[in-house]
Write a structure and sequence with these properties.
Elements: H1 2-14, H2 21-26, H3 34-46, E1 49-52, H4 54-66, H5 72-77, E2 82-83, E3 89-97, E4 101-107, E5 122-131, E6 140-150, H6 156-169, H7 172-180, H8 192-203, H9 205-214, E7 215-216, E8 221-227, E9 230-241, H10 243-249, H11 251-259, E10 264-271, E11 277-284, E12 290-297, E13 300-302, E14 323-336, E15 339-354, E16 358-367, E17 372-375, H12 383-388, H13 394-406, E18 415-421, E19 429-439, H14 442-455, H15 459-486
Helix pairs in contact: 3-15, 8-9, 9-15, 10-11, 11-15
């Protein structure tokens, strides 16, 4: 009888199917190669030395220095920009992944198409065209970008599959299965969110060390609920940096992050055509740097009504979509030296299309609410503010700027398209095209000067940031290698080894003046 009971318990335990983060990472690419493909991308970001050509270096430094007193006409006519074949003036950047080095420089406009030879290689045309018929009156500049990149074997499907896999981990039935398999050593975990966080830390132990030190995510909530007899998970992901600990190990970077407190708040709500909320996202510099809310089950998104309850008949799997339209409504608040700016109801329409040979995501700016400016300059006014001589009707300048964005390009509006060409599965083409228009008024100069003042970094801050980023990427690579090596290799194949080395902190693309 005792033997029978032991056998029964063993069989019952084996029947509890648990989907872990390891599975989600493997399933983000075909044939369970998600960890391997992730390693390829991390290697490009982590170990490759970026070398700027002389023209790219000159243009970058010229632009960064000009932010303090940005002058559109002077920038447009500068020797750093060249006439473009389609009109206007601009620059064409080319980046080529050469293995251990990444070469980046400005090339002649007639250099041709993207060198799709290796992951991350690209050609990007950035252009400007002077317009004298600005929708808000006066002069404006139409701006565009046309980027063609080689994304290797990575596509939009990998991102969607990884997100779906992570959501499958938090499925009510999966969490219940996790809890059944808990050992006595971790029975102290009382709620679903801690259980899932615990599973993530088990999957990525090297990354977990850094995350536990420098971030706090225990306010995250994953709650199993029922509605109309159907179970679902209410997810509220919250992450904020532990600035005091970061300051202990990286004092200049920690001081920089502390100075950003209360500077901005950005929120977005994603809705479907029926007006129901798919997800809510908030990023702010006061406490929680990221907050993400959604309803989910079995890896599928469940829209919610105005009371936050699930609308099951509209749930969907992102990886199974062929055509899907949704809407994004955002609000932005910025506070600088006693002046508070609030721009509500930034409305963007989005259309996603997925076909066997291509896929695309179109974003179109539809409207921007009226910006309000409140408060007054307080304390010691910095010299850059005095030099700009802020006018009393700053809000009018801002709103003419935003309406020009909405009515850009002869009324066609500001827009962007991301598209993936899937015809060559080993060298997927990622194309990014965008068009907008900038009113040449005081707010452009004020906004860029403010951005430079608030976010400029010294070489020491950049070095500390790169040290932390290098540690993080090294940890991620170590965890991905463990996941890759734990998976059974395909017949006749052996998983390649990949050394993990810390990149020197001195290797950086640019340093702000």
């Amino acid at each position: 009888m005792r033997t029978f009971l032991i056998l029964l318990v063993a069989v019952a335990t084996a029947c509890v199917a648990v989907y872990n983060f390891d599975d989600a990472i493997r399933d983000s690419a075909h044939n369970g190669r998600g960890a391997e493909k992730g390693l390829e991308l991390m290697r490009l970001l982590h170990r490759t030395e970026v070398r700027l050509g002389p023209k790219a270096e000159d243009l970058t430094q010229y632009f960064l220095k000009s932010l303090a007193r940005f002058d559109f006409p002077a920038f447009y006519e500068s020797d750093h920009l060249s006439p473009l074949p389609a009109g206007g003036r601009g620059a064409v950047f080319m980046g080529v992944n050469q293995g251990d080095t990444y070469w980046l420089d400005v090339v002649p406009p007639e250099s041709g198409l993207c060198p799709r030879k290796s992951l991350g290689s690209f050609v990007a045309e950035l252009g400007l065209e002077r317009r004298d018929d600005c929708p808000a009156g006066g002069r404006s500049f139409k701006g565009w970008m046309d980027i063609c990149a080689d994304s290797g074997e990575l596509t939009h499907e990998n991102i969607l599959a990884l997100g779906e896999g992570f959501m499958r981990v938090s499925d009510p039935a999966n969490i219940k299965a996790m809890q059944k398999l808990r050992k006595r050593s971790n029975r102290f975990i009382p709620v679903e969110s801690l259980q899932v966080i615990h599973e993530f830390y088990k999957c990525m132990p090297h990354l977990a060390v850094i995350m536990k030190d420098y971030t706090y995510m225990l306010h995250t909530e994953l709650v199993r609920e029922e509605h109309q007899g159907q179970a679902f998970t209410r997810c509220t992901l919250r992450i904020f940096p532990r600035v005091d600990v970061i300051t202990r190990d990286y004092p200049r970077l920690g001081k920089y992050l502390d100075d950003l407190r209360g500077l901005f708040r950005f929120s977005s709500r994603f809705t479907n055509d029926q007006g129901h909320t798919i997800a809510e996202f908030v990023s702010e510099s006061e406490r929680d740097i990221i907050t993400l809310k959604m309803l989910t089950r079995q890896g599928r998104y469940i829209p919610m009504d105005g009371q936050g309850m699930p609308v099951f008949e509209e749930e969907f799997s992102a990886t199974e979509l062929a055509d899907y339209s949704f809407h994004i409504t955002s609000n932005v608040s910025v506070s600088v030296y006693g002046l508070a700016y609030h721009t509500p109801d930034i409305q963007v329409d989005a259309v996603y299309r997925n076909r066997p040979d291509k896929a695309s995501l179109d974003l179109a700016l539809k409207d921007i609410g009226t910006t309000t400016v409140t408060g007054k300059l307080g304390g010691a006014v910095p010299k850059w503010v005095v030099d700009l001589a802020i006018p009393s009707n700053l809000d009018e300048y801002i709103n003419s700027f935003t309406q020009t964005l909405v009515q850009a390009d002869g009324g066609r509006g500001s827009r962007m398209r991301l598209s993936w060409n899937l015809e060559d599965p080993e060298h997927v083409g990622l194309d990014i095209k965008g068009v907008t228009e900038f009113a040449d008024n005081f707010y452009v100069r004020f906004g860029l000067a403010t951005f430079r003042y608030c976010f400029k970094t010294t070489g020491e801050i950049q070095d500390e940031f790169e040290m932390l980023a290098s540690r993080t990427m090294t940890a991620v690579m170590a965890d991905l290698m463990a996941i890759r090596d734990a998976a059974p290799a395909l017949e006749g194949e052996e998983a390649p080894a990949l050394a993990v080395e810390a990149r020197p902190a001195s290797a950086s693309l640019t340093k702000n003046p």
